[in-house]
Amino acid sequence: MRFVIIMSVFLSLFNPLKKYDKTELAMGTVVTITLFDKSGKGNLLIEEAFKIASEYEKLFSSKDSESILYKYNIQKNAVIENNEILKLINDSLYYAQLTEGTFDPALKALISIWDFEKIKEPPSNELIKYAQSRSGYKNIKLSDNKLYLANEASIDLGAIAKGRIIEKMAEFLTESGITNFMINAGGDIAVSGLYNGKRKWNIAIADPYNRSRTAGFIRMTDKSIVTSGDYERYFTASDNRRYHHIIDPFTGYPADNGLNSVTVISSDSTKADALSTAFFVMGLERALEAAEKLDDVEAVFIYKKEQKTQITVTSGIKTVFHENLGFEFILSPDSF
Ligand code: FAD
Ligand code: MG
Fold first, then answer.
1. CB neighbours of 154 closer than 8 A, spacing ≥ 6?
2. What does the DSSP assignment read for 148-207?
3. Does the C-beta of 161 come closer than 6 Å to ligand 1?
4. Phi then psi dihedrals of residue 255, to 5 deg
């Protein structure tokens, strides 16, 4: 027995952590899992984590005609049997109220007419007004598990579901004994433990005006870092304006208040996802005030003033955020 204990201590001292990583398309975006492990199960656990993502995608996607949410959107009246959907819709309503409707889980009608992959010009005012009349979280009537969607409204959880799904993937890895890992789902990032078991993770924040460069980086452990921006999903119309995918529910148009990138840092990735979208709609002043008041919420705001890039961060991360505007974007954390 003593021999076994001595051997396992010996092996753990001399068996260094091995790095595993894999990138796949999931949730309509590029997802990378990086982990450090010495049990030899790294590849297997990464595969399992991706399976979890695709199981949850089948619940939460409003685009996939096979998903449960898609069916609710058609039925308008449903009894929700699945606890995970029930919880995420309830959480969405909580964040809609908390953010005074700037994050809104019932914007599917508006989002559909602003489909940046299909259109090249903004929709007409009439169409926007019509879509607005079929939008808005107050149309989601949820009593226990009975769901009714009033005014023909439909649910879209695109601004919060990635946060929940990376939380589920992270829970799985932690329960499987992996402590040092990063999950990056197209700008929704969760980090746990240490890079290579040695140092905090360095998370780069992209420069929204030049995606091959960084605006800064944050040294973190056990946090989620979620960015919403206007520079990945958009179209440029004949008026030379950029129409992006984050909609101001009050105007029916893409949010247009000067912010180009908002990053939210929290230990709760669902919260970080919902708030990054809400803060983008709120604009700098209101979002900064909200972020300073909320518990377990820090934020980085990027915008232009007199044509110069400005970065404003909340008081809680002043010492861990390092501005490095203009540096080449370094994709591999090994390079830091
Ligand atoms: P966020 O700011 O987090 O979210 C913006 C997205 O939320 C918008 O694209 C819109 O869908 C919605 N939204 C806009 N304004 C608001 C607002 N004020 N309040 C609330 N929501 C708002 N993309 C594909 O192209 N194809 C797919 O098949 C596909 N499947 C997906 C499946 C799942 C389960 C999820 C979570 C996402 C999927 N996506 C897919 C991506 C999705 O459509 C969004 O583009 C993505 O979630 C946006 O995330 P973000 O971090 O870029 O921005
Ligand atoms: Mg979001």
1. 62, 73, 106, 108, 109, 134
2. EEGGG-----TTTHHHHHHHHHHHHHHHTT--EEEEEETTEEEEES-BTTTBPEEEEEEE
3. yes
4. -55, 135
Q: Using one digit for the tens of pLDDT, what is the confidence trace for 198-251?
A: 999 999 999 999 888 999 999 999 999 999 999 888 899 999 998 999 999 999
* Residues 6 or more apart in contact with residue 170 via CB below 8 angstroms: 181, 183, 190, 192, 269
Amino acid at 17: L
In sequence order, the β-bridge partners of residue 208 are none
Rg (CA), the chain: 21
Query: At 23, which helix (H) or strand (E)?
Result: strand 18-26
Any bridge partners for residue 77, and if so which?
Answer: 148
Asked if the model's pLDDT at residue 96 lies above 70, the reply is yes
CA of 102 to the centre of ligand 2 (A): 11
CB 55 within 8 A of CB 47: no
CA-CA distance, 304 to 190, in Å (whole number)?
28
> Which residue minimizes the CA distance to atom 4 of ligand 1?
159
Asked if residues 149 and 135 have their Cβ atoms less than 8 Å apart, the reply is: no
Q: Which protein residue's CA is at the shortest distance from atom 50 of ligand 1? A: 228
Closest CA to 181 of 214, 221, 217: 221
Sheet holding 210-220, edge to edge: 201-207, 210-220, 321-328
269 Cβ closer than 6 Å to some ligand 1 atom: no
Question: Is residue 116 packed enough to be buried (19+ CB in 10 Å), middle (13-18) or exposed (0-12)?
Answer: middle
Over residues 166-177, the pLDDT tens digits come to 999 999 999 999
